[in-house]
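Weekly structure sync, notes
Attendees: PL (lead), two postdocs, one rotation student
Agenda item 3: pending single-chain targets
PL asked that the sequence for the first pending target be pasted directly into the notes so everyone works from the same version. It is reproduced below exactly as submitted, 293 residues in total.
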Amino acid sequence: MTPPDAASTIVVAGATGRQGGAVARRLLGAGWTVRALTRSPDSKAARRLAAAGAEVVRADMSDRGSLDAALAGARGVFSVQNPALSGVKDEVRQGKNVADAARAAELEHVVYASAGTGAADTGIGWWDSKLEIEAHMRELGLALTIVRPVAFMELMTDRGFYPPVSTWHLMPKLAGGSTPIPWIAVDDAAAVAALAFAEPERYIGRDLKLAAELRSIDECRALYREILGRRPRGFPMPVWMFNRVASRDLVTMWRWLGDSEPAGNSDTLRAIRPESLTVRDWLQRRTARGQPG
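Predicted structure, written out during the meeting:
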C-alpha cells in the first residue's frame, strides 16, 4: 500500500458531481491531498469540499490548458465525465483531454469512471463513448484502473435521476420487472477508487466491474415498501416523451438489460470491499439518516 503524504496530491475531475464528490470525500478521509476541479468554485458543492479540506481549482475538461495547469505536480487523477450534461461528443472530448493532460504531466496513476459491461456491441451511446475514452487512455500507455458500475442505488431515490418516471415506471417496463440489475451505492464505488490510489501495485491494469448485488426492480420495490413503509411513487410517461426530456440512451440501456444475460455479478466488489451495501442496507441507512425516498 502507498500511504498518502503531504506531497501526495490526487486530482478529482468532476469533483462537484455525485461520483467525483464521493471520491474526493473518500480521499480526504484517507489523508490524501485533494485538488478538486470544477467550473464553478463558488457553488455550494465546491464550498463544501473546500470546507472539508480540498483545494478547489477552477478548470474545464473541455479546456486542455486549464487541465494542464490543474494536473501539474499531482500523483494521480480520478477522471469522470457526465454525458447527461455535456452530450456524448463532448464527453469523449473531455475524457480524452484529461487523459492527454495526465500523460503530459506524467502522472503515476489514472482511475477512470466508466460504465456498463465493457462489451462493444451494446449500441448504448453512453457506454460506447466510455469505451472510446478507455481505448485512448490505453494508446497513451497510462497507468490505468477502470471502475465500471452499471446502476447506482441512488437511481431509486435521488431527485436528479427522476425516479418516479425512470426507475419506478419506465425501467421495469423496458427492462422487465424481474430482470436482475447490478446495483452499487455511489459511495462504495468511490471507496474502490480511493483504494486503487492507495494500492496502485494491486489495481493498475485492472478493469473492475462493480456490483454489490443483483436485484430486480420488483425486488427493489418490495424492499422499498418494507423499509420505508410505503410504495415508491411512480409517474407514467410515454417513452417518446422521456426520449425528448431525458435521454434515448437510457431507454436503449434498459431494453438491452432486459434482452441480455445478467450484466455481471458481485464477486469482484465483494472480494475488494465485502462491507459494500446491499440494496436493503442502503435503504435502511437512508431511513436511519432521515433521507427521503
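Discussion points:
- The chain has a mean pLDDT of 93.
- The CA atoms of residues 179 and 260 lie 9 Å apart.
Action: rotation student to compare against the earlier draft before next sync.
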